[in-house]
Amino acid sequence: MKERIHKDVVIIGAGMAGLTAALYCGRMNLSTLVLENALVGGQIANATSIENYPGFKSVAGGDLIATVQQQAENFGAVIDEFDEIERVTLKTSPKVVETQEKIYETDVVIIASGMNRRKLPLAEEKKFSGRGVHYCELCDGHAYDGKIVAVAGGGNAAVDAANFLTKYAEKLYLIHRSQLRADEVSQKRMRANEKITVMLQTEIKALHGDKRLESVDILDKTTGETKTLAVDGIFVNIGVEPNTALFKDELKLTASGRIPAGEDCRTEIDGVFAAGDVREKEIRQLTTAAADGTTAALLAEKYLSKLKAGD
Length: 311
Ligand SMILES: Cc1cc2nc3c(=O)[nH]c(=O)nc-3n(C[C@H](O)[C@H](O)[C@H](O)COP(=O)(O)OP(=O)(O)OC[C@H]3O[C@@H](n4cnc5c(N)ncnc54)[C@H](O)[C@@H]3O)c2cc1C
Fold this sequence. Notes:
By secondary structure, the protein is α/β, with parallel strands linked by helices. The strands form 4 sheets. Strands 1, 2, 3, 4, 5, 6 and 17 form a 7-stranded mixed β-sheet that branches. It has a 5-stranded parallel β-sheet with strand order 8-15-9-10-11, covered by helices on one side. Strand 4 and strand 5 form a beta hairpin. It folds into 2 domains: 184 residues, FAD/NAD(P)-binding domain, CATH 3.50.50; 118 residues, 3-Layer(bba) Sandwich (FAD/NAD(P)-binding domain). The site of flavin-adenine dinucleotide has 35 residues, from helix 1, strand 7 and helix 7.
């Protein structure tokens, strides 16, 4: 029989959103458990240098996250990265989060399970990740001032990334394997931009470089020819996968697979909040993840107070 344990708050995911929520919940003396099914830190854990998190000129993702984790633990939050969640039941009172080893009954669930960006399906991707291969133009575009870059992808996110990156890049190639899916307005803006060359029906076949990316092999699918293109960096925008499979029977999801919730992070179920990249929103950054974690925690406390008062 699994042990049954009661918590005020269970937070799912120990990225920036989940850890910030844990810090706030712990500081408000709520019994707080964070469940993480991989490693603490989420998407930012391996980033070498973050230059847009207020308060730090430059900080490694691992160092930033370790500090937030320590803050949360100092306030009494418990972080468990070994016990995987099997199922959640959110519409009952209390809500139930069942792991491989335990059954947690809780009044509040904060979902902060984030997302994964689709990686370039090439063996060399790992070697160049952060060294020429990037997934976030807002985060890493700044390093490409006056350089030649490529964007892989053909949806709105890719075309917007291309338009944005020409703030820095001297020359930009948009590489996409079929036709563009981006909306007309973004496409028009891109086509009017002299720095951008659009390469449709093309596929990236290989990445080359010594310590950093120097060039990519591109297959022209209409002619069957492969050519090598010199680039300093490539920004991959071929889709994301929100981590919401666990909740699909409990909560409605948006077309992109995220959880619909407004700035208050409240979902359709009382006492269930969505924070960070898993929430449907336009801007996904560390600061917005931390902001969501804060909001979810403070509104969770209000919800708990009302619940305890029987309102
Ligand atoms: C390479 C890279 C560089 C970036 N650089 C910057 C930057 O410089 N500045 C910036 O502001 N932003 C940057 N970002 C964006 C930023 O990392 C994200 O916006 C932010 O980390 C989102 O935090 P989150 O907590 O919402 O989600 P995530 O970081 O995705 O964390 C979610 C956590 O939940 C866990 N999880 C998922 N499913 C489950 C489950 N079923 N059970 C338990 N745990 C689960 C995951 O393992 C993960 O640890 C970067 C992103 C990437 C990929």
